[in-house]
Amino acid sequence: STSLDDMIDLGITDIVKLQVILFAFFFMLYIINLIGNLSIMVVTIHDPSLHTPMYYFLWNLSLLDICYSSVTVPKMLADFFSCYKVISFAGCISQIHFFHFLGSTEVMLLTAMSYDRYVAIGNPLRYSNIMNSKLSRHLALGSWMTGYFHSLLHTVITAKLPFCGPNLVNHFFCDIKPVLKLASADTSLNLKLLTRVTGTLATTTLLLTLLSYLFISKFLLKIQTAEGRKRAFSTCSAHLTVVFLLYGTAIFTYLRPSTQDSLEQDRAAAVLFTVITPALNPIIYTLRNKDMKKAMKKIVNISHF
């Protein structure tokens, strides 16, 4: 029930010189994200030694990062060079849907990955029995489905609101809070659901992830040798880094009241988790992972040969 056909994003900045610098910086990060995550996907399929639950989840995470960035970044890059940063109302609602679908799937998947690390370190002898391919598939599929339905709820109740104008979205893409500001009706239910549902999802998954790490740290303390401890922890450190980057910005954005200042800060936080984190993930995972480096070298040597 909308009488608006188009929305206009206000973008990141009006300063032309800054736009050129930001375009170059974000374009470079987007390319790193695409190449890095595609490489992980190809290597994990190509190398039989990486056909384990941990790398199956990492394959899903790489796919998520490519899609997640692609929801907002190409449009944002094009907007740097257009006077009117127009997006259709349907496009705006789709952006909200896919942004929240892929984002909430990612937090679910990171929780599944922390459980995988807990089983690997706490119960190494029974690891392949517990984390079999059936359970890994169910955990991954469960993450995608929960993410989809969580996002569908927000998308539907946002799309049903009446929008009669103004149509200026105070952001560089359509996110729920800045779009709700434009609705010509009471949005308190939408905001309550955003804080409660998204808040519950973020808090529950974060607590479960931290719980896994609490148990992991207990097992690490039992490992006698420093070398053994270091090896066990090295498989977790990359995952922990990604968790803190993602949750820090998500909690900062969605669990605070929506004010004009907070929307400015949300824009900065959104750059972090739509552009920077997806580009960092493959770097974090490949630099801190011996198996991954070995598999990549193998592929490079084969192609070189």
Structural class: mainly alpha
How many strands, which pairing sense, and closed or not: the largest β-sheet?
Answer: 3 strands, mixed
Strand content is: under 5%
CATH architecture: Up-down Bundle
Helical residue percent band:
over 70%
CATH C-level name = Mainly Alpha
Net shape: globular
Series of secondary-structure elements, N-terminal to C-terminal: EHHEHHHEHHHHH
Number of strands: 3
- CATH T-level topology: Rhopdopsin 7-helix transmembrane proteins
Mean pLDDT: 87
When the domains are counted, the total is 1
Our Rg estimate from Cα atoms comes to 21 Å
Cα-to-Cα separation, first versus last residue: 61 Å
Describe the strand arrangement of the main beta sheet, using strand numbers: 2-1-3
The DSSP helix count reads: 10
Flag low-confidence runs: none
CATH homologous superfamily caption: Rhodopsin 7-helix transmembrane proteins
